[in-house]
Amino acid sequence: MINLRLLWTWDHCVQWTAGRAGMHDWGASNEYPASAEDFLREYSLLVRWCGQNGIDGVVIWGLLRDGHGGVETATRLCEVAEAAGVKVLAGIGLNAYGGVYYEGASEWSLNNHLEKHPELFAFRADGERHILLPDNFMPQPMLHACPSRPENMDYMRDGLRWLMETVPVHGVQVEAGDTLCCECPLCRERRQHPVSALSWEDMALVYAPAAEAVWSVRPDATVVLETYSHPDPALEGDVPGFGGGAPPWAAECLAQFPRGAYVQWVGDYVTAPRNSVPWTTRAPEGFAGNIMRSHHATWWRGRGDEVAIHWLAEVAQKSIAQGFDGLSIFGDKSPFRTGCELNYLALADYGSEANPEADMDSFLKRVAAPLLGGDELAAEFLRLARLIEAPEELEGAVTAARRQAAKLEGRPADRWTWLAWYLSRWVYDRDLA
Ligand SMILES: [Zn+2]
Fold this sequence. Notes:
The chain has helices at about 35-55, 70-85, 110-115, 150-165, 185-190, 200-215, 250-255, 310-320, 340-350, 360-370, 375-385, 395-405, 410-430; strands spanning about 5-10, 55-60, 85-95, 130, 140-145, 170-175, 220-225, 260-265, 290-295, 325-330. The chain is of the alpha/beta class. It has an eight-stranded parallel barrel with strand order 1-2-3-6-7-8-9-10, surrounded by five helices. Strands 4-5 form a two-stranded antiparallel sheet. Helix 8 (about 310-320) packs parallel to helix 9 (about 340-350) and helix 9 (about 340-350) crosses helix 10. The longest helix is centred in the last third of the chain and has 23 residues, at about 410-430. The chain is globular and about 65 Å long. The relative contact order is 0.10. The mean pLDDT is about 95. It binds zinc ion. Zinc ion binds near residues 122, 146 and 148.
C-alpha cells in the first residue's frame, strides 16, 4: 500500500490558476517572477486541491524568499495547508541549493553565509571555490558549502532549528547536493569511496544531524532524505550519478541515516518510458517509509503536462511489490491541464484502499470515466493522448478529440478541448520543421 503521496515543486514553476503571466515551465534556481499574492493564492489552490483529492503533502523548493514575502507568506500558506489537512515540506539544500532561506536578506541564506565566510566554501579539485553556473534552466549561481567543516555543520543545524521554530511547516525534504562534491583536503581525507556529482558518504554525514535538529524542535515533523538513486545495485565499477543504482558502499551509508525519516529514491531509469526493467532490491526496512519519486509529465525528462497515468501505474506497482510505501511526482501545474489532473488523481488512487494493486483500468473506470464522459471515453482519451508518440496519427487524434469535445458540456468538454489543443501543438511544430 502507498501511505505517503507528495507533489514536488520549485516555487518559480508553480501555476495553479489557469493563466498568468511570467511562469517558468521547468528548471531550478530561477528568480521568482510573480508576487507574494500570486505565491499564496496558487499554493493555496494546490494544497486545498490536495486535501480534497487524497494527496498528503507538497514539497516546496524556494519556500522562503524575500521576493514572495519570506516568513510571513510561508506562515500563511502553512496555515492554509494545516486547515486542508495537507503537509507543507520545505525543500532544503543542506550544502547547496541555497540552504534554509533560499533567497533574501536572511542569515539562513546559504549564499549570505558563504559570502560572509569565504573560507567555508566547498572547493573544486583545482582549488577554486565551488560556485556552479550551470545553464539557462538554472540561471542563479549556486554556492556550495564544504560538508566537512564543523562551522557549516553548526550553521546547518542552527538554520533548521530556526526554521522549525519560526515557520509552521510540517517537515522538510533535505538534500546533500547533486551538483558536484567538495574536493577540499578535509573531504578527500574523510571519504573512503569515490564520488560522482553526488556522494553517499556526504549524505550519511549530514542527514542524521539535520534530522536531529528538526526533531529537537518538532519531534513529529516529517523528514524526507533524498538519495538521488535507485536501490538496485549499480554496475560493477560504476560510480553512479543522479537516478543510478546504489554503489557497494550505499548500504553502510544508509545505515547511518536517521531511522525516523523517510528515504526518497529515484524511479526514472528503472521504469517506462526510459528503462522498464525488473527491480531486484526491496526497500530498506526500519525507516518511517521509502518514497519513490519520478520525473513524469515534466520538461525535465519528457514533456510537460503529458498524460502519464500508465507509467505511474508501473512505478506504483513495482514500488508496492518491493515494499516502497510513498510516491512523489511533479506538481507545479494546475489540474486545468487535464494531463496533470489525471496524473495527480492517479497518484492519489494507486496503492489506495480503493485500488491496492495500482490497476490502471480500475482507475480509468472509477476515477477518470466520470470526468471524461464515460468508461469508453476514458480509455479513448488515454489512447489519443499517447498518439503524441505517433506523428503520422496526430492529426487524426486532434480531430477525434475536437469532435468529442463538441459532444460534451462543461468540464468534460474542457478536458477534451485541452487534449485537442495539447496534441495540436505537436502537429504545428512538426509542420514547421
Ligand atoms: Zn570539503
